[in-house]
Amino acid sequence: MLDMQKRLSNFFYATMSLPSTAMGFALCIQISALSWILSTKFGLEIHQIGVVWAAGPTAGILGQVLIGLISDKTWFWGGRRRPFILIGGTLAALMVFLLPRIDMVDRLFGGGHILAVAIVIALVLDLSINVSFNPTRSIIADLTPEGEARTKGYTWMQTISGFWGVMAYLVGATFGNETLITLGAIIVFAFSVLPMFFIKEQRELALQADNAAATRADWGQLWRIYIAHGFSWLGVQSMFVYTYGFIQTHIVPAGLPEAQANLMSGQVIAYSFAILNTVGFLLPALVLGPVAKRIGRVSTQALCVAIMAGAYFAIAAYARTPLMLYVLIAVAGIGWSAIVSLPFAIMSDKVDKSRMGFFMGVFNLSVVLPQLMSTGVGYVLKDVGNNSALYVICGGSLAISAALWLLVRDRSGATLPLTARAAAH
Question: Which sequence spans correspond to the domains of the chain?
Fold first, then answer.
């Protein structure tokens, strides 16, 4: 064990945060570039792109649940989390590298199967991310003592991961998605693999003191949380997958040469998601924590999601220039900041603490199943022939989510658990 790990130095916290950052960076690349590449470079139609995107959530249905359970009970290559981080990070970096080279891979297999190749690459990429995400979060809990030290570990993780996620979108907007992909493949590989040589896992974990006070799962409340969170993700994922069509139709001026139009649409997508994630990264620390203490986490979640629904409706009606889109996307970021921080805090009060890894994996199903359902939105958009309908559908889904969150009971006087406290500092 290196001295920095024994002392729990800041450099150790930063190093320990990099694997999670790598997975977040790969996910940002997927969100920013996948639909754009499939449309502009390989000519896939909007409903076909939805099919490609469905491959990833399919992998996630089993990926996080199984890997979370397995990594709790296994040991090889000098760790319980390390093997999955190394394997997942290497595969994710390779799949990121292949994203703009789908046609080359297709030719290697005889050509004529571009959709199938795209599905396989998207599937392996998302499976790799899912293989690594749970271990990259769990290793922080494994290597830090309870209390302030562990809170600091998750704070560093969110700060570093959030910063690099925004950088991913800005690089794509400034230098182009292909530059982002090339640079991203290097970053994902380096941030996944190199830290594993500087930190050491313990084969025997100390029994956590709070296991003795583990609570029984409140399945009635959990189902309400899963369904409410699922409607949030149906709206958010549909935006991620299909917003390029809205931008090409309503934001990019008519009459531009195709190459210029494609470049502009890619930049607008990247800047939009950079703004969304900047708000999502900053707001939990500055606003959501204090507001949740005052009005409760569930009320805060419902309010933020309702604001996001309103922003989506406004985009459908009024966003016809990049500036107007950016302003309304920033408003939507209020809801995004809650979606990525508060639901786990609410959920963690209602589960058996001794099986947190399992319940984290099950909670992921409330994300990936709606992502699968978003495939159907592509067919709806194709049938109606109006890309403004995307944000009407997304806004409606978020409005339903906000209403359903009000059915969830928040524990009176509950303090934010570890991961939420990390988000709020």
Answer: 1-201, 212-425
Does the pLDDT at position 121 exceed 80?
yes
Class of domain 1-201: mainly alpha
* The domains spanning 1-201 and 212-425 adopt the same CATH topology: yes
Of 395, 84, 404, 123, the closest CA to residue 235 belongs to: 395
Q: How far apart are CA 12 and CA 48, in angstroms?
A: 44
- Pairwise CA distance, residues 388 & 269, whole Å: 16
Rg over CA atoms, the chain = 21
Would you say 410 and 293 are in contact if contact means Cβ atoms under 8 Å apart? Answer: no
Residue 79 — φ and ψ, nearest 5°? 180, 170
DSSP line for 173-213: HHH-HHHHHHHHHHHHHHHHHGGGGT----SSPPPPGGGGG
Residue type at position 338: A
- CATH number, span 212-425: 1.20.1250.20
Q: How far is CA 296 from the centre of its chain?
A: 24
Average pLDDT (152-174) is: 77
Contact 60, 368 (CB under 8 A): yes
- Nearest residue to 126 via CA among 102, 93, 92, 101: 92
DSSP code at position 340:
T
Amino acid at 421: R
Measured between alpha carbons, how far is 389 from 91 in angstroms, rounded to an integer?
A: 36
Three-state secondary-structure class, residue 47: helix
Predicted model pTM: 0.72
What value does the mean pLDDT of the chain take? 80
Q: What is the C-alpha separation between 398 and 308, in angstroms, rounded?
A: 7
Q: What angle do CA 151, 154, 160 make, to 5 degrees?
A: 135
Of the listed ranges 21-35, 96-110, 127-141, the one predicted with least confidence: 127-141
Q: DSSP string spanning 396-421? A: HHHHHHHHHHTTSPPPTTPPP-HHHH
Dihedrals phi, psi of 76, to nearest 5 degrees:
-160, 160
Q: Report the amino acid identity of residue 5.
A: Q
Q: Report pLDDT for 110.
A: 80
Please check whether residue 57 is in contact with residue 233, taking contact to mean a CB–CB distance below 8 angstroms: no
Rounded Cα distance between 316 and 325, Å, is: 10
CA–CA distance, 334 with 312 (Å, rounded to integer): 12
User: pLDDT for 346-361, tens place per residue?
Assistant: 776 676 655 656 777 7
